[in-house]
Amino acid sequence: MLGLMRTADVVRRSFGRVLEEQGITLQQYNVLRILRGAGDSGLPTLEIGSRMIEESPGITRLIDRLEAKAWVRRERCPHDRRQVLCWITAAGLGVLESLDEPMADADDRALSMLSTEDKSHLIRLLDAIRVGSR
Amino acid sequence: MLGLMRTADVVRRSFGRVLEEQGITLQQYNVLRILRGAGDSGLPTLEIGSRMIEESPGITRLIDRLEAKAWVRRERCPHDRRQVLCWITAAGLGVLESLDEPMADADDRALSMLSTEDKSHLIRLLDAIRVGSR
DNA sequence: AACCTATGCTTGACACGTCAACCATTGACC
DNA sequence: GGTCAATGGTTGACGTGTCAAGCATAGGTT
Predict the structure, then answer these.
(1) pTM as predicted
(2) How far is the CA of B57 from the C1' of D12 (A)?
(3) Which DSSP category does A118 fall into?
């Protein structure tokens, strides 16, 4: 378990270094990816949160910062005024696009020492741990 | 890589839940473990930091909190007045002791779904990723 | 219509992790 | 002995994870 956490941190930092050149953090990147996937219909705040690693409260402030950088647009939903819908902006899409390749490279680099078989085995083991942790 | 980070977070939170009953965090627990291992001779601040996951600056404040709870004692080293030596206190040892068993159980639980062979394979894969990330 | 619980955030407070800048002490070199 | 770079730590600022508490809106129930 120690090894798992250590390795995850090493990998996290290595992705972080790629992202910091665009002035974006890993979590902000994740949110933008999720919103790009959601398309024009946008997503309510907590729906984004539920697709991320963290618990809900942090997501509000995370999106605050993305909105401040004009990468995300927010609007209260007219049908259910409790919800706040979020969309990625054109600027946000641009940032993501410029990161797609470097991030794919980083991913390749991080796993370059493993064979295809190793990778699928690793995924299976990790999934098993995650499923079992309830 | 996503799976790795997700799984690590799940595991981190699960250990966190065990520790919070003693009012201690995972990082604080790590520091105490390191200091227990160091014994009576204590360790300089940055030496502790280098054995942890994080980079140096955070370690000062981490130990500040441990000192505030009287689990750690600090003293400027007389031979090299730049260094600050740290020791775990008796109270700190007590806290650790009360956590040894619950933490071992949590570790077992987290990995109970894997065979011995799976575990050593997982360790090998994780080590390979870590070694390759330089 | 009045009430009540659930839902969807948001905020405040605190623990980190990380970078950049800074201070003190050492040790080496001139 | 005086200067200077290196070492060991600390601080400030900012992003994030998490808990507890709070607020507004929805959707029943009566």
Answers:
(1) 0.90
(2) 11
(3) H
